[in-house]
Write a structure and sequence with these properties.
The chain is an alpha/beta fold and 555 residues long. It has three domains: 1-99 and 184-191 and 215-269 and 534-555, 3-Layer(aba) Sandwich (Rossmann fold); 106-180, no CATH class; 284-528, 3-Layer(aba) Sandwich (Rossmann fold). 39% of the residues lie in helices and 23% in strands. It has 22 helices and 20 strands. It has a six-stranded mixed sheet with strand order 6-7-8-3-9-10, with helices on both faces. Strand 1 and strand 2 (29-38) form a beta hairpin. Helix 4 (117-128) crosses helix 5 (133-146) and helix 16 (403-416) packs across helix 17 (433-445). The two termini are 41 Å apart.
Length: 555
């Protein structure tokens, strides 16, 4: 990878940037005295957790911050020598696209749902160039080929909703590259993508950087991604840069305690030693479980989708079974069938030996408390108009527990999940994301379930908060002797918390077994591809973890 040779050779030079927050904010500056540079053909990863200021920095560079809420009060942002902060909006509009471009985290919010994707790329060319309509059409197909989109002539006429997440992200990259800008800003562009798609997008960005000489400012919280693509790393905390340097140095010998904490929180791909769970009757089992979605109507043949096909699994008390796979693999469908949020098409679902697959709603009611689920987004799971205490006590009271007993149980559970019982009177918006997820876990435990399902329960959390919630889930599994079904697409997380792994693809279980065995000797090509695509698998922090794991095995 290319390297910068000095300040005069920079595409982007941020010097002493400070951005002021509104007066009632929890701190004075969103970004304070931030300095770093990006050279041609260089990838600089800006890393930090939520609230670190990394996205505010990126949006300030692009001139996209809301000036009424956020105000740059000091510093310079030199884009190829031109101070962005001193430019009027008319000039900034010209710079955006021609000299700098941005890839956003969620392409569906950045793309116009009413326009064909080819027209959206062409619109950029029409605004910023003098190309004829025919030349624009040819350029659109060229940039779509550059980002490895299949059948660009056909795909150009598609709408965003007709494309996969990875394809939409490639369209965003094609739009950003259409005018061949010197600076590309990527704001968490792979966070919402499956692991193999993520690997493809990272490879694509590396190829663009190398072939076009583009300087890339890559915003991320994932040190696996950093290890995969970064030339240099800038670590931010509470709006300040706490450490920066060559990627190899920062990853292998981090100097700042915050950087050390972030890297130490990255889950290893090497499963730790876990004592086998004693054989017993399973608390949860499915047998030839199937879920078919059929969109056929009276007068037309629709699409038939086997979301889950002949799925068989067992989970004992005190055991965690991980279900891994990419979007569309059927893992969440299986979870929703088990909880009976959707009705299975056929097959058996047994809880402590009792089949609940075909029970009516009234017949299901006694079993509702036995199986609880924690979803990915805790804010959508909690009623914003009810206090968290009301949300926790509602379930037990519906099953006949008195209000006083339910409140006592809720206060005890708040302590178990690491929150103050005095916070029961607060509303969901008054908590952080990690705290809200802890509340959802407490709400699930209040029902005293036999089976707990965690459906991508930590995927939206910062890495350090994720580590805390994973520890909490493992603690409550042991404390309450729960059978846990852990749904995730993150192989690192699954390695650390699961006794056994079940791999799903296109609704079918392609492989399952003890976690250490599946990771060390995957048999199915799909499992092999998932493990090979995990970002940063060769990173220095992984090698340290492997050495520690080896020492534990020897002991």
């Amino acid at each position: 990878m290319a390297r910068t040779n000095g300040a005069s050779d920079t595409v982007l030079d941020v010097r002493g940037l400070s951005v002021e927050l509104p007066k009632n904010a929890d701190r004075k500056y969103a970004v304070e005295n931030v300095s770093f540079s990006v050279g041609p053909g260089e990838i600089v990863c800006v890393v930090g957790e939520s609230g670190s200021g990394k996205s505010v920095t990126a949006h300030t560079v692009m001139g996209l911050i809301p000036r009424k809420q956020l105000k740059p009060v000091a510093g310079e942002i030199l884009l190829e020598g031109q101070d962005v902060l001193k430019q009027p909006e008319k000039v900034l509009r010209r710079l955006r696209g021609e000299r700098m471009a941005m890839i956003f985290q969620e392409p569906m919010t950045a793309l116009n749902p009413l326009m064909k994707v080819g027209d959206q790329i062409a619109e950029m060319l029409e605004i910023h160039t003098e190309l004829s309509a025919a030349e624009r059409d040819a350029k659109v197909l060229d940039v779509m080929r550059d980002v490895n989109l299949p059948k660009p002539e056909e795909m150009a006429h598609s709408y965003p909703h007709q494309l996969s997440g990875g394809q939409r992200q490639r369209i965003m990259i094609a739009m950003a590259l259409a005018l061949e800008p010197g600076l590309l800003i990527a704001d968490e562009p792979t966070t919402a993508l499956d692991v193999t798609t993520q690997a493809q997008i990272l490879d694509l960005i590396k190829t663009i950087q190398e072939t076009h000489g583009t300087g890339v400012m890559f915003i991320t919280h994932d040190f696996g991604v950093v290890a995969e693509i970064a030339d240099r790393v800038v670590v931010m905390q509470h709006g300040r840069v706490v450490e920066q340097g060559p990627a190899e140095t920062v990853l292998s010998a981090p100097a700042d305690p915050y950087t050390q904490m972030l890297i130490g929180s990255v889950p290893s791909l090497v499963p730790p030693h876990r004592d086998p769970v004693p054989k017993a009757e399973p608390a949860l089992a499915t047998r030839v479980l199937e879920k078919i979605y059929d969109s056929s109507g009276f007068f037309q043949k629709g699409r038939v989708v086997h979301a889950a096909k002949e799925v068989e699994l067992t989970v004992q008390r005190g055991e965690t079974l991980g279900v891994v796979g990419e979007s569309g693999s059927g893992k969440s469908t299986v979870a929703r069938c088990i909880v009976r949020l959707v009705d299975p098409t056929s097959g058996a679902i047994t809880i402590d030996g009792k089949d609940i697959a075909t029970l009516s709603e009234s017949g299901l009611r006694p079993f509702r408390r036995d199986v609880q689920i924690v979803f990915q987004d805790p804010y959508r799971s909690l009623n914003p108009r009810r206090t968290v205490g009301q949300s926790i006590v509602e379930g037990p009271m519906n099953f006949g527990i008195s209000h006083d007993e339910a409140i006592t149980r809720a206060r005890d559970l708040m302590k178990i999940v690491g929150l103050s019982p005095d916070a029961l009177d607060r509303f969901p918006h008054q908590f952080s994301g990690g705290q809200r997820q802890r509340i959802c876990i407490a709400r699930a435990l209040a029902m005293e379930p036999k089976v707990l399902i965690a459906d991508e329960a930590v995927s939206a959390l910062d890495v350090s908060v994720q580590a805390q919630v994973l520890d909490l889930l493992d603690d409550v599994r042991q404390r309450f002797d729960l059978a846990m079904l852990f749904i995730t697409h993150d192989l690192r997380v699954a390695a650390q918390v699961c006794d056994r792994i079940m791999v799903m693809q296109h609704g079918v279980v392609v492989e399952q077994g003890p976690t250490a065995k599946v990771y060390s000797d995957p048999q199915h090509p799909y499992t092999q591809a998932l493990l090979a695509a995990a970002p940063g698998r060769e990173a220095a922090f992984n090698r340290q973890d492997e050495a520690q794991s080896g020492a534990q095995v020897m002991d």
